[in-house]
Design brief:
The chain has 315 residues and is mainly β. It has a twelve-stranded antiparallel β-barrel. It is globular, with a radius of gyration of 22 Å.
């Protein structure tokens, strides 16, 4: 006797999408999938790509910091807390619904104190790798949003602050801890617009500080980001705006919770993506943490940043 026939939920979604999309032009569906592929961060592959590689450069200027009570303190006169980050990344399609990605940053720090002391440092930042599972690809069916799950891991390849080799800590390039992450992304496209919601959670693992030899763990984190964008020039130029909320639990040292160490941050990024050819795309962005001045930020530096990137898709 044959096994009973079962229908999984994602199969139902695919079947429904096929029915809804039968009468829709394929050219419209193809255009929709490209809108946000390279607007923020590593991004994703479009439906016809097998792989993509890219590089981005971001310069961030420190302007102040929020304390544990949410009070903002401006950067001291004649002091600096700047960072240059150069990041290489890659995306590879394993199957129609599965993509893997990796990114590796190089970080250059610049610090200056009011007394005239200045120091610089550089080194690899914390690298990340992950996998993306697309239940429904963006633009696959016009009447349904794209839905994806992303699992990732951050490795402690950067230099922790207490391991800095200079007096002002400019040579610190990462947090130096393993971090597990899980996120969901939902995106809806209606040409020439798209909107996207990303929700993620992170779980840092414990590590032993090199200076005190005490076990320490950063608190679990929650990240929520909403984005909207518009295709300004068909198949060429896309602009977008993203707002993000980041929350991190209290630090634990030696198994004990450290009071007033929770982190809250609000940020915004405006970006543009310009497709030079079917394979090459340029991107630019400006960002700020100044939304924290709305009163929510805690234990967070304020920075203004600008960046440029280039992407090459293989198909």
């Amino acid at each position: 006797m044959s096994a009973p026939f079962t229908v999984r939920s994602h199969q139902v979604l695919h079947l429904l999408a096929v029915v809804l999309a039968v009468a829709l032009p394929r050219s419209v569906q193809a255009a929709a999938c490209c809108l946000s592929a390279s607007v923020f961060g590593v991004g994703r592959l479009v439906v016809w790509e097998d792989a993509a590689v890219g590089m981005s450069t971001t310069y961030a200027r420190g302007t102040g910091r929020w304390d544990s009570d949410g009070r903002w303190h401006a950067r001291l006169l004649d002091s600096r807390e700047d960072e240059l980050r150069v990041e290489g990344w890659g995306l590879l399609r394993l199957a129609e619904e599965w993509q893997v990605f990796a990114r590796a940053p190089w970080v250059v720090g610049l610090r200056a104190a009011p007394d005239g002391t200045m120091s610089t440092g550089q080194g690899p930042g914390d690298a990340q790798a992950g996998v993306r599972w697309e239940l429904l690809s963006v633009g696959e069916y016009v009447e349904l949003p794209g839905v994806a799950l992303i699992a990732s891991v951050v490795g402690p390849t950067g230099r922790r602050p207490e391991e800095a080799t200079d007096s002002l800590g400019a040579s610190a390039t990462g947090r130096g801890a393993w971090v597990l992450g899980l996120a969901a992304s939902v995106e809806r496209t209606s040409l020439p617009w798209f909107v996207r919601l990303d929700v993620g959670a992170t779980l840092p693992l414990a590590f032993t500080r090199a200076d005190t030899h005490v076990r320490q763990r950063y608190g679990p984190g929650l990240q929520v980001a909403g984005a909207a964008g518009r295709e300004v020039v068909a198949d060429t130029l896309v602009i977008a705006l993203q707002g993000a909320l980041e929350v991190e639990g209290a630090l634990r040292v030696g198994g004990q919770r450290v009071p007033d160490t929770q982190v809250v941050g609000l940020s915004a990024v405006a970006s543009a993506s310009w497709k030079l050819s079917p394979h090459w795309t340029l991107s630019a962005n400006v960002g700020t943490d100044a939304l924290g001045r709305l009163g929510l930020a805690r234990n967070k530096p304020e920075r203004f940043s600008g960046g440029l990137g280039v992407r090459h898709g293989f198909f």
